[in-house]
């Protein structure tokens, strides 16, 4: 009998967690990329689970806590057994600003667990640490998160951010094993692959690697990015040209972009934001085609050539430290 293709799972650093290579980025459930109805959200999460996605990422920041509430309701209403999903949320970044104090993050996890309708999360990240004092993250926030871990409210601890140097700053200064994972975004896709430089260091210290935003937060989609997207006009226009080129050739830029990100197996999971069941199907389909047939090298090379002038171009984020 022919075997049904299954979405690949990968181990996350030293955590023992086995993540689906595509993770469900739940920021769209907070209406970050336009309004998503509760019905569409439920259908998307249901389809994700049916197609083998076991990893869901949210934050109290997304939609000013809406994303956590919607995700919690979906997982609850679908009756998903708790040990069959890996849920990550974050702390320190909120709709009204940043607060990485021990007091705030300790309160934050209880609020998140209540919205998510869970007793624990699998991963609790400090969210976008470049906006805080990195010494506070090292000396106050991470120790507070260790206590949360010891209380059983989070199984593993992570840090997230855009500039890659914040990861090394913190990891070089905290006790080994106190940060289990990093979540990087917009640095492992066709237009920007600078995360590559950090991977040997992360592997050498056993820190798990999650990469988010393979579609560069909408830049590598036919519909283009949302108004708030921070990329330069030059980067936006190059990505739009790549999308048009793919469409003219009967291809889809999002498919090739996601496949590119999935090809690096040192990255345990690629988090994609998905607004509906159709996008879940498309994205899981892209992953299955990649593992069964491989990537379309011709279109990849053409897209790489279009994006070459803006390769690795990024944007400032957080407190500028020099
Ligand atoms: P993304 O690159 O995944 O792009 C999301 C956009 O692409 C949405 O508009 C979505 O509707 C669209 N899309 C998804 N699949 C598509 C398809 N097949 N065809 C066309 N369009 C498609 O960016 P993202 O959502 O910002 O990142 C993914 C997730 O990663 C987030 O939801 C969040 O969970 C996480 N993330 C975390 C951080 C952080 O911690 N600092 C930063 C960015 C992202």
Helix content bin: 25-40%
Strand order of the largest sheet: 3-4-5-8-9-10-11-12
What is the chain-wise order of helices and strands? EEEHEHEEEHEHEHEHEHHEHH
Number of helices: 10
CATH topology: TIM Barrel
The number of domains is: 1
Distance between the termini: 61 Å
CATH superfamily: NADP-dependent oxidoreductase domain
Bound molecules: nicotinamide-adenine-dinucleotide
CATH second-level architecture: Alpha-Beta Barrel
Low-confidence regions: none
Strand content: 15-25%
Description:
This protein has 322 residues and is of the alpha/beta class. It has a single domain (11-223, 257-292), classed as TIM Barrel (Alpha-Beta Barrel), CATH 3.20.20. Helices cover 38% and strands 16% of the residues. The chain contains ten helices and twelve strands. The chain has helices at residues 38-50, 66-77, 102-116, 134-150, 165-171, 199-204, 233-248, 253-262, 277-292, 297-307; strands at 9-11, 18-20, 22-25, 55-57, 86-91, 93-94, 97-98, 121-126, 154-161, 181-185, 208-212, 269-273. The strands form three sheets. Strands 3-4-5-8-9-10-11-12 form an eight-stranded parallel barrel, surrounded by four helices. Strands 1-2 form a two-stranded antiparallel ribbon. A hairpin with a 6-residue loop joins strand 1 (9-11) and strand 2. The protein is globular. The protein starts with 8 loop residues before the first strand and ends in a 15-residue tail after the last helix. The model has no long low-confidence stretch (mean pLDDT 96). Bound molecules: nicotinamide-adenine-dinucleotide (NAD). Nicotinamide-adenine-dinucleotide is lined by residues 25-28, 33, 57, 127-128, 160, 183, 185, 212-218, 221, 254, 271-275, 279, 282-283.
């Amino acid at each position: 009998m022919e075997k049904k293709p299954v979405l690949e799972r990968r181990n996350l650093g030293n955590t023992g967690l086995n993540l689906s290579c595509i993770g469900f980025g739940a920021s769209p459930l907070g209406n970050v990329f336009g309004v998503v109805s509760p019905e569409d959200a439920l259908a998307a999460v249901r389809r994700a689970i049916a197609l083998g996605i076991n990893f869901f990422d949210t934050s109290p920041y997304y939609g000013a806590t809406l994303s956590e509430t919607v995700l919690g309701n979906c997982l609850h209403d679908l009756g998903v057994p708790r040990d069959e999903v890996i849920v990550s949320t974050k702390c320190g970044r909120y709709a009204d600003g940043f607060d990485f104090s021990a007091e705030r993050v300790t309160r934050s996890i209880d609020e998140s667990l209540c919205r998510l309708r869970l007793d624990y999360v699998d991963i609790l990240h400090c969210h976008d640490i470049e906006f805080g004092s990195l010494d506070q993250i090292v000396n106050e926030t991470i120790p507070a998160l260790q206590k949360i871990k010891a209380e059983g409210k989070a199984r593993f601890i992570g840090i997230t951010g855009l500039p890659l140097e914040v990861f090394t700053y913190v990891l070089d200064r905290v006790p080994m094993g106190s940060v289990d994972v990093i979540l990087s975004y917009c640095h492992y896709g066709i237009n920007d692959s600078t995360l590559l430089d950090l991977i040997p260091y992360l592997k050498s210290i056993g820190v798990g690697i999650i990469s988010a935003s393979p579609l560069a937060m909408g830049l590598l989609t036919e519909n283009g990015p949302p108004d708030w997207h921070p990329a330069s006009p030059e980067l936006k226009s190059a990505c739009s040209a790549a999308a048009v080129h793919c469409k003219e050739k009967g291809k889809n830029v999002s498919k090739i972009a996601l496949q590119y990100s999935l090809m690096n197996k040192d990255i345990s999971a690629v988090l994609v934001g998905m607004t509906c069941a159709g996008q879940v199907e498309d994205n899981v389909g892209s992953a299955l085609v990649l593992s069964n047939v491989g990537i379309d090298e011709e279109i990849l090379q053409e897209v790489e050539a279009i994006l070459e002038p803006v390769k690795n171009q990024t944007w400032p984020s957080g407190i500028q430290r020099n």
